[in-house]
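name: query_chain
kind: protein
chains: 1
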Amino acid sequence: MSELFASPDSKPVSSAADPSSTPITASQLNIASGAHSSPVAAIILAAGKSTRMRSKTPKPLHPMCGLPMTSHVVRACRAAGVERVVIVIGHQAEQVRGGLTDDPEVEYVVQVEQRGTGDAVKAAQPVLGDWEGTILVLAGDVPLLSSEALRRLVSRQHETNAHAVLLTAMLDDPTGYGRVVRDANGRVARIVEQKDATSEERAIKEWNPSLYAFEAQALWSSLAKVQPLNAQGEYYLTDTIGLLTVQGATVEALAVTDAREVFGVNTRVELAAVAEILRDRIQRHLMLSGVSITDPASTFIDVDVQVGQDSVIEPSTFLYRGTVIGEDCVIGPQARIERSTLGNRVRVLASQIAESVLEDDVKVGPFANLRPGTRLGKGVKIGDFVEVKNSILAAGAQVSHLAYIGDAEVGAGTNIGAGVITCNYDGYEKHRTVIGSNAFIGSNSTLVAPLTIGDGAFIAAGSPVTEDVPTDAMAIARQRPTIKSGWAAAYHTRQRARKTERRVL
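structure:
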C-alpha cells in the first residue's frame, strides 16, 4: 500500500509487551471518582519538521479550504467543548505560532528538540501537569477530524473511567500503519508497527491513527516511564498504551464510523486528497441547504463561506473564506470571490472580486476586476473589462465597458461610458473623483483627480477634464478636427511612387 493517508504517528515503536521495569502504581494513576464530569483539555502535536512535504512552509500552516491545516483540528476541539487547547510547536516555531491565528485563546509550548511524539507531549506538562480531568492528545495534521468523533472519544473515557481511550479505524489494506493488537478477551493489548509486526499481526485490519483521550495523571505517569528503546532513539507516545495495559490499567478503543476523518497528511499528495474530501463536505452542506452547485468537481469553496437559498454556483468558481452570498444569485462560471459580501439576485460572470460589497441586483462581468474597497449599490452594472478600486457606486450606476474607476464616488443613475479613466494617482499620492447623480460621462473621457462633477452633468466623449464641472453643466475638452480635403489621396500617391522608385533602384 502507498503512504497515502499514513498515520501521523506511523513510526516504529518499542514493543508494548516490553514496558519499563518500573511498574505504574494505582496511586500514580490517581483516577478520581466522578470522572464523567471532568473538564477536557487538548494537546495538539505540531512540532515536527515533516520533510516529506518538501516545503519551506511548516506543515501545520499549509492551507486547506481557507484555514491552516492545524486550525481545523483546533476548531474541532472547540466545537466539541474542549476548554483548553495547547499546541506543541518546534520546527519553525515562531512562524507556526504567527500563522495559527484563527483562535486567539490557544496556548503554545515549544518542543526544543524533536525527539518523538512522547517527548512532544511532555513539553506540555508544565502547563497541564496539574490538570484534573481528560486530556486529548491529537495530531495537528488530521484536518478532517470531526467534533462529533472527539465528543464520542471523551464520552467513552468519562463513562468507563478508562485511563486511556484511543480512536481506531478499519482498512481493508492497512499496510504501513500501526496495528491495534487485542488480547483473547478483545481488549486492547498493545500497538505494533508494520516493521515490528508478525505475519499474523500484519493481517489485522484495525489501525491506530494516534488520537487519544487520557485521564490526565495516567498520561503523565505513563509518559514518565517511556524510554527511547527503538532504532530512532525517540520517545513514542504509543508506548504509553503498552505501559498502561501491562500494569492493569483500563484502555479502551473506539472505532470511528468513517475512516477518512482520521487520515493524516504527510505529503502534498495526501494534502490534495484530504482537501478534496473537505471540499466535498462543504459543498454537500451547501447543496443540502438549498444551493445549486452545477459541477462540484470544478468548484472550490472554503470553510465559513455562506451562500443563500436558490443561488447557483457555476463551474470553475472559487469562493474564498470570508465570502457571504445572498439568495437567488448566479455566480460564475469562472468567478473568483474573496472576503466579499454579495446581496440577493447578484450575477457575477467570469470576474474576480476581492474585499468588496455588492448590494442586491448587481451585475458584474464578464472579465471585471473589483478590487478592495469597492461598494456597489442596488442594481449597479459593471461590464466587461472594467476595473473598480476603493470606490462607491450608488444605486443604478453603470460602467459597462473598458473603464477604470479608482478612488471615486459615483452617484445614483450615473452612466460611465467605454474607455473612461479616473486619473487618481499623481505619482506620489492618490486623489478622489466625485461624480454626482444622473451624470453622463462620455466614452474615452479622462477625469483628472481631485475632481468633482455635479449632478446631471454631461461630459462630452473624448474629454480630458481637469476642472470641477457644476451641476447640470456640460464639459467639452477637445479640439475641433482640421479636415484637409484630398490630402489622403495625395499622400497615397506619393507613397506608392516612392515604393516603385526603390524597387527600380
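note: Residues 1-36 have pLDDT under 50 and may be disordered.
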